[in-house]
Amino acid sequence: MGNLLGSVPLLIVFWGGDYATRVILWSIALYIMLAIRMVHYHYPGNTISTHKEIFRYGRDQTFLIFLTGCVWGAGGAVLFDAENINNLAYLILTFISMIAGSMVSLSSRPVSYILFSAPLMLPMILSMVTQDQYMYRWMGFGAAVYLFATFGFSRTVHRVIDNSIRLKYANLDLIADLQQQTDRANRASEEKSRFLASASHDLRQPLQAVNLYTEILAAKVREPEMQTDLRNIRQGVGALNELLDALFDVSHLDSGNVQVSRISFMLEDIFHKLECQFQLKAGQQGLDFNVDYGRHIVKSDPILLERVITNLLVNAFRYTEHGKVDVRFESVDGGAVRMHIRDTGIGISAENLEAIFQEFFQVENQERDRRLGLGLGLAIVRRILGLLGHDIEVRSELGKGTEFIITLPPGKEEERAPPMLNTAESGSISGSLDGLRVMIVDNEALILEATDSLLSSWGAECTGFLTTESALQAVHDGFCPQLLIADYRMPGKYNGCDFVSVIRSVIADVPALIVTGDTSDDVVNEFRRLQLDYLHKPIKPAQLRMLVSRILRRDEEQKSALSGNKAR
Hints:
alpha/beta; 12% strand; elongated; membrane; five-stranded mixed sheet; transmembrane; Heat Shock Protein 90; histidine kinase; HATPase_dom; kinase
């Protein structure tokens, strides 16, 4: 484009007089040369796929660039007229502009620039230095100096271009390597998630059996020494339950599969639900536990937030030997609520304030004494709060206590959810199961037998099935259970939820409980969508007894209400 446009001013300036024929012939020669270069550039036979072909193409282009420079140089020779200073000024200005413009475009290959600029300038330089007037000689000398100076500039531009290209490809290599590393990390994370999902189920299965058999054994043991051994077994099993739950919680949060359900609710509802548990703990440790109740409506996920509060309170009681644990609320600008959980425990040094949120980090437990916890509670807290988008601040002074401050967004009164059910108050473990016909469906014979034995010890009449097909056949044969307890992950055509739906199509509204080792959100959401009660393995017998009692009492209340409506 520069060659095409650069010739136009010369055509205009030299059109009249004796120069017309020369400038026309020169222009025709230049345009023919440019046409040849254009054809070569777009010629379909120019396949460039190997190093040899690239070299050949570059060599041909360089030769054509040299010929173009020769045509320009010929123009400088035939149009040079020392007697016409105005025309000569246009000629010199055009040639200097061509050199300056080509230096940028051709410096990627300095030899191409030299082979273009040297034949372009040398004829005119020779024409000037051969003149009798010193002015032209000095102009020729200056043009030669300028030409050689541009060679140096061209080398500098070439280095800049070369470095830029090298950096570009180095960055592309780094990006490709980073992408490979990211892909490998993602695959490893997916494999870890799959492994942990499988391990979650497979590890919970035998632990579930241990929990149930421990409770069965407790009902049979009478000797004090054996009761001591049994208590130690329970502590060990409880520790294993706690460890597995914490590890799988961390993994589940890291997987990014946790679904957040933000609603408006009364923050104090969570503490009403937890107060009994922690007041009992405070009494056992000789501590004061105070909650400054008010009326604060926030918007968050109450289930996840309850887990955060529980972990913080457990931590506060664990590291406080004397004094108190206080909870207070503070309204701030914009309607947000700050929740303060403060203890008078051992405190945390300034250098450890960030480290406490790392997995397995414990300030006062370098010996890994399990009685002081696992060091995962605060790691889970940070992950959940990050998921919820809530800020947490830690203030602590060594030897004087620690305060955790969580800022929660405001909720709306008109959108407020009803108070959350207090499980501890909603069910009693003392309800009688005498004569209750229970159908237990689990493909693990060990767990099936343990559940059967445990419920039988509570007075229930249990019938167990290893497959959903055999259980359905029993119902079709006339067996009418009053309660279903089914494992979610069953082989065959039906999972636990499907099985309950099929049974309810035969026996309307039979109470049901699903037991699962799968903690994924998809499974939990399926339970909620179908309004099914469920428990996660490993199940504590007290949990099972409490939930069964609550299910049965709710069923009785529904039947009573239905009977009352019919009587009216």
